[in-house]
Amino acid sequence: MDFPSFYMDHLAGGRLIIGLIASLHVLINHPLAVGAYPLLTWMEWWAHKNNRPDIDRLAYRITFIVFIVTTTVGAMTGVGIWLSTSLFAPFAIGSLLRVFFWGWFMEWLVFISEVVLICWWFLSWKKADTPEKKRKHIRIGLALSIMSWLTMALIVAVLGFMMKPGEWSQTRTFLDAMTNPLYAPQLGFRTFIALMMGAVFVWFATFFFTRQKSGLDHEPRRLRSWVVYRMSHVVLVSLLATYLFGTWYWGRIPETMKANSSVALLTQEFMSWHGQFQTLLGWTILVFAAIGLGGLGSSFLIPRWALLIPSFMGIWLLGHFERAREFMRKPWVIGEYMYSNGVHKDELAFLQSEGMLKHATYVKHREVTAANKVECGQDVFMLACSRCHSTTGLNSVLDKFSAMYGTDKSWDSAGMALFIKGMHQTRTFMPPFPGTDQEAEALVAYIQQLRQKPEPLHGVQTTGLTVALPAPAPLKTAEAQARN
Questions:
Q1: Is the distance from CB of 135 to CB of 158 less than 8 angstroms?
Q2: pLDDT tens for each residue of 58-88
Q3: What is the pLDDT of residue 217?
Q4: Over the chain, what HEC string results?
Q5: Would 479 be classed as within a structural domain?
Q6: Which of 191, 220, 238, 378 has the smallest CB count inside 10 Å?
Q7: What pLDDT does residue 472 have?
Q8: Residue 101, exposed/middle/buried by CB under 10 A (0-12, 13-18, 19+)?
């Protein structure tokens, strides 16, 4: 509660921005940086070893696409994750920086090395015109592939820690934080789904660079057959490994988080569709298997347009994995350590006894009174609810209470206050209310006013900083003054 709230009401406080930037980054980084770079390096090595300049030229042309995308959108979204989390979730990113200081330090060194290597590798490709230069160039590509994977490997440790810190909860050591129970299975899952999607991308791009100019031109067909046959092997092996590591990962997730899976995968409105989602997941696996098996038979058995199906399904699968991982850990932002509203687990009982307003910095009032009840309720909402909810925008608190009490009936304030204080018991993805009874009543008063006069809530970027005066010191008695 030591940070002013940068808040965007129509975007559920800003979490949607974090989610969109992070998802776009993953959808670029995994298939292209982690998946495609090692495959393209391998293609360059194979071409050099077997004297196939046509394969080398194809690898270069595909690398051009990967280079442009990863060094622009990929790099910008990576920086965007830091910027958006610092603005909208400073409490969480601050704690993660303290726990993973050396991990983040190593990740930045690896990231800088990755950027230098990709520029060096791509821009020096055509200059590698002798066997010795080519061998050196291939080693640069190998180093790039390793650095791309290491970047993901370091970040995955943080993502696993946020769901299940493991032994760190007792030891508070960096090594235990890095080697959390979800680290190995999640790293394996992400590695092989990246290779699988990277292989499909290389396969798809090959179709555009191997068009026959005439019926007598057999070189494009020969080159395409070479790529399709080998990428099919990568797809099939990676699919099996993705399934095995995914099963292992699911088995290590805490049972309390698994209970959130139906909401995490589809949202509350579509919880009943959980069975259909599992069916679609099965079809996704079958499509990748069919593409891989089809490619083993003939490079022309799978038409170019058909590759769009696993491409979109891979994006869908990886996107839903990110959504599910983020939501399933609720009510925590860091498992068993920090709730999603930024309250530490160890501070909860203290705040419920003392009150949030008394110990918050950027509020209008320290104590709830009849005169300031609504203003206090607004501050309570900002402190306890705004990380996930809005007032009138996405995931609106008004919509939630309207679904419970109806829009054409009066809302019982006493019942609402009781619900707020006990909601975590029936909705396990909600954190406990971290305030006193008076603060819960103030929050209800604010929501009731919003119902009568809906208006968006503005963050510090619009309203400026507001700091309440410290509570006045108790007046000294005449006897105490005489002693002084």
A1: no
A2: 999 999 999 999 999 999 999 999 999 999 9
A3: 58
A4: CCCCCCCEHHHHHHHHHHHHHHHHHHHHHHHHHHHHHHHHHHHHHHHHHCCCHHHHHHHHHHHHHHHHHHHHHHHHHHHHHHHHHHHHCHHHHHHHHHHCHHHHHHHHHHHHHHHHHHHHHHHCCCCCCCHHHHHHHHHHHHHHHHHHHHHHHHHHHHHHHHHCCCCHHHHCCHHHHHCCCCHHHHHHHHHHHHHHHHHHHHHHHHHHHCCCCCCCCCHHHHHHHHHHHHHHHHHHHHHHHHHHHHHHHHHHCCHHHHCCHHHHHHCHHHHHHHHHHHHHHHHHHHHHHHHHHHHHHCCCCCCCHHHHHHHHHHHHHHHHHHHHHHHHCCCEEECCCEECCCCEHHHHHHHHHHCHHHHCCCCCCCCCCCCCHHHHHHHHHHHHCCCCCECCCCCEHHHHHHHHHCCCCCCCHHHHHHHHHHHHHHCCCCCCCCCCHHHHHHHHHHHHHHHHCCCCCECHHHHCCCCCCCCCCCCCCHHHHHHC
A5: no
A6: 220
A7: 57
A8: exposed
Residue type, 235: V
Which pLDDT does position 271 carry in this prediction?
A: 47
Q: Residue 216: its pLDDT value, please?
A: 57
CA 183, CA 157: separation in Å to the nearest integer?
Answer: 5
Rounded alpha-carbon distances, angstroms, from residue 439 to 53, 290, 381, 382 = 72, 58, 10, 12
Contacts of 52 (CB under 8 A, 6+ apart): 46, 226
- Name the domain count of the chain: 2
Q: Give the residue from 314, 339, 364 where a domain finishes.
A: 339
Encode pLDDT of 112-142 as tens digits. 999 999 999 999 999 999 999 999 999 999 9
Whether 285 and 415 map to the same domain: the answer is: no
Count how many residues are written for the chain: 484
Domain co-membership, 257 together with 277: yes
**Residue 148, domain extent:** 9-339
Which CATH number does the domain housing residue 375 bear?
A: 1.10.760
Boundary of a domain, candidates 339, 364, 398 = 339
For 155, the token pair is 């970040």
Q: Is residue 95 part of a domain?
A: yes
Under 8 Å between Cβ of 291 and 313 = no
**Dihedral sign for Cα atoms in the order 293, 294, 295, 298:** positive
Residue ranges for the chain with pLDDT beneath 70: 1, 212-217, 262-278, 298-301, 470-484
Task: Give me 180's structure tokens.
Answer: 């959390």
